[in-house]
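Hi there, hope your week has been kind to you so far. Do you reckon you could talk me through the fold, stretch by stretch? I've dropped the whole record in just underneath, so have a look:
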Amino acid sequence: MANDERYLQFPLFMLRELFIDRQKTIAEIISYGIYHFSKNQKYDLSDVAKQMMYCYYRKQGDLTNDLRRMIQRYIDSENIYFDEDYNGFAGSEFNPVLELEQILRLFENDNNFKEKAIEFYQIRQACSRDLLNITCNIDACLRRGKEIERTIPEGEPYPSINKSLFFDFRDHEKTEFDLMQFACYIAIRSILGEKPYCRTNKEMILCRAFGYKSNKHLPTTMNPVIKELFVKYKKRYHIDRILQSLELNWNILIYSHNIRGLYIGLSKKITLESMIVQAETKKKKKQIDALKKRKDEAREKALQQLNKGQQLK
């Protein structure tokens, strides 16, 4: 997958401040998305130690504050050798053999040191040109990512969105209509999850667009800005304009002919025709089931009348 097609995943509740402070909200989503993505990066402890020491010699600004202090403490106590002449290089090759041996031994006894080194390695790999290709403050990203992680409600939806969208909406001016499309697109992606299509309703999409899992999770009191927008887009005309734009410009499929609610899908995963076939098949099955239920109820009533008549005789 090309790095411009990478996706960032984040807990839905982070959308709640989108219409209050767009840039701050999206910046935090990006930070958390990087942190979340980094946790799945594989590592080898030798590579972890080598990268950490390289950064200490040549790119100390990349290191987290904690890690820089820990390395310095171990250097001061002579537990890690410091090569002030060659900085771990033998010619053009960086190969600090003695330092790596010492660090790997320290990892065995200092789990906190090892964990912080692994976190640093993973997030630096995640941001690399071959993966997310994002420049970030690793220390701030790790700290904020952990803070957000501790506040995630159980069962919170985790939409996955192309990283380029976040940078576009963070760095460029957008109208209210643009931002609402963006929020509703994220809402639909959060509802779909890994499914190519599913059935939902406009109210659910609107709740998700403002960062709430469903109608029952809406707060009793809202920020006045959010409340005004929520009331506005609850009206059929406004929400229908958003949904139509998503169909035209965002690769979203929507079908709602003679059904309660609507079907949503992603054009990359299913065709509109296939989704309609599925929707109509389910509608027909539901109609048949309803007909069967009515017949069963009518039969039960008829038998009760017959039994009552026989008892009277």
Summary: The radius of gyration is 28 Å. The chain has a mean pLDDT of 93. Residues 162-272 form a domain with the Arc Repressor Mutant, subunit A fold (CATH 1.10.10). The CA atoms of residues 231 and 238 lie 10 Å apart.
